[in-house]
């Protein structure tokens, strides 16, 4: 028998036997390889080859065609195509890869599809254009597979295979073969064969009896990882309450059956994907509905791009088709929106999507605003009606407890009422309640102590982080001091980086750390032992050592990386070498990225993991895979700016991006690092990245990239208080956007110029810029941008004292945000209405607006704006004389800003605490708060807020009768405000210098300061003019 057929049959049999049993493909294959079974295996291979030839002839005869003639003449080429082998590889390498192809098969059906497609490729068929031929060929392979397994079953009786499998793998081989035969009989009936391999590789699966027969539910690990479709099919997770008297899945099913698409929205860990799976399983089980095509983001091996393949499957599916896509707004899935648009009026196709609300409502950065596809995706998404996940109820918790106890056999001691109260106290942290609840359930490991500011989830992360980063120290959960300290820490970082980014924790990727620590046997054995130590702790094996490892929710891993970034940030504060990126994450990225550039590194991993499907995919398309691995990591950093210290900058990074990456990805990473640093308030680091990107664009003649970079530099300069520089950057950006006819970019730059003018007190110029921006956004149909412009116009009107106009602008903005379902925008508009109410003295109305805004930000998990809302409520409390309440709100705001690494927000909260302390007469405390605030603003280069802190220190000094110090602080503040062109700040400091002079009896000098201040305020048409006039009147009375 042809060795190629024997090798193929070995892997087919091992794959089918192992599927759904919990044993590994490699374990089954190792037993089959033993010499005493060679003859039996060759006989099975012969049956497979002959059966396939007969089946193909039968298909040809039935179709009255000769298309498949000779399809099995070249098994060598077929096997090479399945294994992805290239011409010119050594015979040893070729033999090894062929012998390991079972790793490429997810299950027996996947194997049949891959073999059929390989045969077609060798014969020159394009099965995507001949779906009937594809179906026939897959069916033929399935028939031959079934015949071969039937032959194999007969051979078992004459060997000791049954005893060997029982003793070594605790597997009843006869039962496994019988199950396999049952599943093989259904292959021809299962419509999943209509999904091409590309669509399957990109994560789509067809729900079917065969699909669920293959997957074993995981009742214990799923409570800490994620519920699979198999878990949901087995009824493991509990149902959750909807808004009415029905369950949430029933509320969703009603409009879906009426062909109305829905978007399930909630924060991370809120149970979005579980609800989608419950809906999908119910749809599959309902005889009156049709096919379900499901893309699970946890199982998606590549970005979804094969729209044609999915369209073909939809067209040939039976009944009313439901297409479900998780995390649909992300770049690796958002191609689905084009199909949604295409099937807009087709009542036989319905789409169910999910997304995190903060991601859905975040307007794309200036880097992506002009990309038509990105904008169109978001427009389509905004038109889909949202289903906001209801808050967790006590009844939800009671059902969850019952489900957990039934699935695991473990008793939950605390009542649903107690757990509900505890979750309510943790709700401020922005994590999904169902994820938080899972860390209150007794799951295998001991509970950990947590402080008053932590959730159970955060305490769980912290304890494990400390154990891996500080082995042998007091308070660690396990003694891991036997391991190399750096290697132990790096394995912990690597597995969490792979999980948080969505790449997946594949063992071979963890072992890439051999690049940093040596590819010797000892290093790989130690990595393997560390992995085993982490299993059952926060890693959970899937059953096959070559497959992706399960771990806790990706948010768990993000919090782990957050702890790493915070530690590094603190170390930087105390170090001279403050700008270097974090070393552990850098080694992990270096080791991972080197896979794409260094052949010796890849070969070392392939020796350790022969036949790895992960490595085969990288070898097959190295450049494409390099982009696919790099982008998710830096998307994660932009989504979570607190992680920016792990990424560093172009000049400070300790890692190298793969040379195999496209130029576009290299440029994109530079800009993304800039965005991440900007969003955490590290403006000078952001400036470094944007300047590099600008230079690249100018060198290559990339006009659009040049305009984007100038716009970004303008935003950073504005945030730094460098208003003239900001204006110059933005004017250049505007000119280029107009030259290249980029209307969206033009509107963006106009809006930013308006913001600069607003900060400078040039309100008429600001209004003009914002009105121009508004007109463009309306013309191009950008409703979200329209609402943003209206909000900015409201701020300008408020600053000019036009409070009724301001309210009207903000109400229009609020109406649009609510109309398009943008809850973040809705909350910002409510906050702006609160600001207007506060300025007109309507403090209770202001408090109500801020409370509504706060509730939404907490609901969608936007912690930065949650902190802003808390600070605003604190301002209202201060105005009402509720100083202790004000202090509490600002303390909460400060805690969050520090938590998320927003240094600008931290300094603002410290400044507000200083103002409260002043009101309470606690001037030394006030001075300390303002000094801390000043240090941070100086550190991040925010000149405007530096000047404000100096002004506040001057006010404290005046209250303490330290007039010399007060004058010095106000003079420093005045100098900065004049240098940056902030006329409002200049006028306020002149007024304050007048008061110091008046206190010292220097009346003429005081009068001069007041008159200068009054002149500026009148020019700005600012309401503070009345206050300065009163100071002049008091001076005249005293004189």
UniProtKB/TrEMBL annotation:
It comes from the Archaea. TPR repeats lie at residues 707-740, 747-780, 827-860, 907-940, 987-1020. Coiled coil: none annotated. The keyword Transcription regulation does not apply. Residues 263-362 form the Novel STAND NTPase domain. Keywords: TPR repeat. This is Tetratricopeptide repeat protein. It comes from Halobellus ruber.
